[in-house]
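cron nightly-structures :: item 1 of 1
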Amino acid sequence: MAPRRSAKPAPSLRLTGDTEADGLLSASSLALLIGMVLDQQVPLERAFAAPAELARRLGRDLEAGDLATAEPDALAAIFSRPPALHRYPRSMAGRVQALCRVVAEDYRGDPARVWTDAGDGSDLLARVRALPGFGDQKARIFVALLGKQLGVRPPGWEAASAPFGEPGSYRSVADIVDEASLERVRATKQAAKAAATVDGATSRR
């Protein structure tokens, strides 16, 4: 298994409000990717706390090769055990396993190579977007998170992450560093959702 590589120690992420969960996200590139995959249709704190709970349920560190070769029904059962790790535990267990297979096969088990091997921002975005569970918007948010909080800034990363890489935009998890910024991100999302609802109603008139 290839060791994790990092140009410098990762800063401490503060996404969940739980010290242990945030510590794992800061230390484990795979945990951070898994949290990002799970960040849909559940509160973001729950999504990003799930990797730490998954590690507890497994009784071992999260490793891509281990999860990639797990028996699918057994992994789904671990995700489904109350309290479930996600609103859709079986489906998300499958997505996490698919992600881990790509990391194991294409990146030699080292998830950080998704970004450490990227030549520029466009390459980084393409690599992240190709991962199971990552659409275009989620990939851009993740590139913004890498740039804003983890110092992963290949040439062109701002353009690749637009609009989420904009300074002080408070559009996504990339901008969350404490409780105050979490509330600002929530307010921005709620305002965008309300505007979209109004626009949709207007277009139907």
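cron nightly-structures :: done
The chain has one domain: 19-168.
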